[in-house]
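[09:14] KT: can someone run the structure on this one? pasting the chain below
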Amino acid sequence: EPRWNAMPVLEDVRDPSLIHWASFGKPWEPELTYGQDRWLEYAARLHDRAGAPPTADEGTSGRVGSIRNPDSIGPATGELSAAIEGVIEAVRSEHLSYLDASSLRTLAATVESIEADGIDGLIIETGTARGGSAITMAAAKSTTRRMKVYDVFGMIPPPGEKDGDDVHRRYATIASGASKGVGGETYYGYREDLLAEVRESFGRHGVPIGDHNVELIQGLFEDTLTLDEPVALAHLDGDWYASTMTCLTRIAPLLVVGGRFVIDDYDTWSGCRAAVDEYFARRDGFRFERRGRLHIVRV
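[09:31] RB: done, structure tokens below
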């Protein structure tokens, strides 16, 4: 994991999920001034993302498999084919995905599971960036199963009032032109023709979209996400509140029994978490699982 054992005062860390400070001097102490502003920025970002600590009455509660107490299953650990492992290694080496290898393997294993269980329906990805996760899922699915990949293939739209400060700070960095892509490369939203790049990447990694029943759909989710057929798997990576809520409201009614959402940003951005919590607060018929990312299964 490239973000582990990084030194933010010396290295460019994209977006830390955990800060473990092991030395005697602490970054919040005045004696330690080198890089202190950067440490405090990271700490504030993580605090905003996590929110206030739960009280005794607000802790984990409810039945196992509920949104407050997801079933902790963990990432996939079974063997994948050499071909799929090769795709995962290749998309990561080309920096085509923000996901680590374990998360990509879990996505591939999830696709293999719906194939093995005979669960009918589309595979959908909403928010693909440079296409790495979509390419991985396409490599794992049957060539006869349809897959739709939605993205603006350009600059991410701005967040709204239901997104937290963490989201607005992140968007300000993106809009300023200062964001970095995976591995320090050009951020995907700054690329001149991202749609063509993603299409070419599918073909380069052995899953040309024409031969593998994949459709790339450009535009805002609110304008393009119009479906009227069953959905087996939806990987949601829309980051903000409005995009996540649009995906949930338009896809969930079509999710088949045994089908699932994989929510990429539930633990990353406040707006995504708020949309998921709000949508499923009063809805039955779903089981919540922790497989690295949050999985939501229609039962």
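[09:33] KT: thanks! Strands lie at 71-72, 122-126, 147-151, 214-218, 231-236, 255-263, 286-291, 293-298.
[09:34] RB: yep, looked fine to me
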